Amino acid sequence: MKRILLPDLLKGLAAFFMVQIHITELFIDTAGRESAFGKTTLFLGGPFAAIVFMIVMGYFIAKNKSLASQNMLRGLKIFILGFLLNVGLNFHLLLRIKFDGWPYNPLEYLFGVDILYLAGMSIIILAGLKSLKKGQEWASLILLLAVISLTGFMNEKLMVTNHYFVLPFIAGTYSWSYFPLFPWLAYPLTGFIFAQHQEKIKLFFKMRKNISFIFIVVIAVLVLIFYKHGINTTINLPSYYHHTAGYALWALGLTLLWTLLLQLFLKLFPDTKMGNFFCWIGKNITLFYVIQWLIIGNIATAIYQSLPINSYIYWFGGIFAATVLFVFLIEKVKLILLRKF
Q1: How many CB atoms lie within 10 A of CB 158?
Q2: Average pLDDT over every residue of 222-227
Q3: In angstroms, rounded to a whole number, what is the distance separating the alpha carbons of residues 319 and 159?
Q4: What is the pLDDT of residues 43-52, one digit of tens each?
Q5: Three-state SS for 113?
Q6: Hey, is 28 helix, strand or coil?
Q7: Helix 52-63 vs helix 186-207: angle between axes, to the nearest 10 degrees?
Q8: Beta bridge partners of 113
Q9: pLDDT confidence of residue 2
Q10: Cβ–Cβ contacts within 10 Å for residue 102, how many?
Q11: CA–CA distance, 226 with 234 (Å, rounded to integer)
Q12: Closest CA to 299 of 19, 91, 111
């Protein structure tokens, strides 16, 4: 079956934005991060990266034909991969804590709630929703509204000392919890719900072009009206990781406009070298994500937030190119092994 290009392009560009924000966040000094260029990189690494990943993932969980048990097993595997990746990307730091006595709690790095933990938990929850014989669509919508509306409440109530490394996976403004279920489950749920109603939405847009155009214009106007709040939340990383309803709605509107723009690009330019390149990255997104974190995470221990902004382009270019090369070589080896065996 032919792959759909738009999701791969969305994921590929998200990977590009993801690497650049990791460089800014972990390598660049305070002055660089607070510069106009630094803030731009932080913004591009927000709605266009993690949120896009999660929406696309939720869409494909709804569309795949796997059994609920198979999806749940997949979610568990990704969750375990999240733990192994935390070990790998923090390996240099863990060695420093162990042998040099650095005063950090290793559990906060091993169980830091990164996006693979979120992905694993979200897949398990969506698989459970998908297994419902009746009321699946209503249950999904109610859960989405609950996650968006209750995040602030949950963040406040779950900031307790007991269950120290369990609650951060759910909610709370813990410093090592980057992608807790509240609010981040909202995005895979959005993709899941869209997939359930995709044909109806496409038919509506086709039959009611004037209304559809007005709807898109209204979304664009609202995104522009609240752009200052959206940008300020994005570039303030603690606020971004633990955002509440207002930002979630703004980010969903921006993501819709971004998706429509890329859809138009593919319609006008269906076969470009650059587009195909980012689609290839999107196709191999998990491997790409793991490799870039292994590189960035271990280097960051040595140079954490100490570099001037003028060194950014060299680090970003080198790490992005190295990640692409490793992904290419690993995929080539996999193809050779598959042909051989």
Answers
A1: 20
A2: 98
A3: 36
A4: 999 999 999 9
A5: strand
A6: strand
A7: 70
A8: 177
A9: 60
A10: 13
A11: 12
A12: 91
Beta pairing partners, 78: none
Contact assessment for residue 53 and residue 323, using Cβ atoms and an 8 Å cutoff: no
Residue that the structure tokens 């993709």 belong to: 191
Hey, is 307 helix, strand or coil? strand
Task: Quote the longest CA-to-CA distance of the chain.
Answer: 67
Q: Show the DSSP H helices in the chain as ranges.
A: 5-27, 30-33, 36-44, 52-63, 68-89, 91-99, 107-110, 115-130, 136-157, 181-184, 186-207, 209-225, 227-235, 237-241, 245-268, 273-283, 285-303, 312-340
pLDDT digits (tens, 9 = 90+) for 234-280: 999 999 999 999 999 999 999 999 999 999 999 999 889 999 999 99
Q: How many Å apart are CA 9 and CA 269, to the nearest integer?
A: 12
Q: Mean per-residue pLDDT for 153-164?
A: 81
**Positive or negative, the Cα torsion across 143, 149, 155, 158?**
negative
Task: Compute the distance between CA of residue 240 and CA of residue 108 in angstroms, rounded to an integer.
Answer: 19
Pick the closest to residue 232 from 58, 93, 39 (CA basis). Answer: 39
Tokens representing 52 are: 């896009």
CB atoms within 10 A of CB 7: 23
Q: Exposed, middle or buried: residue 238 (CB in 10 Å: 0-12, 13-18, 19+)?
A: exposed
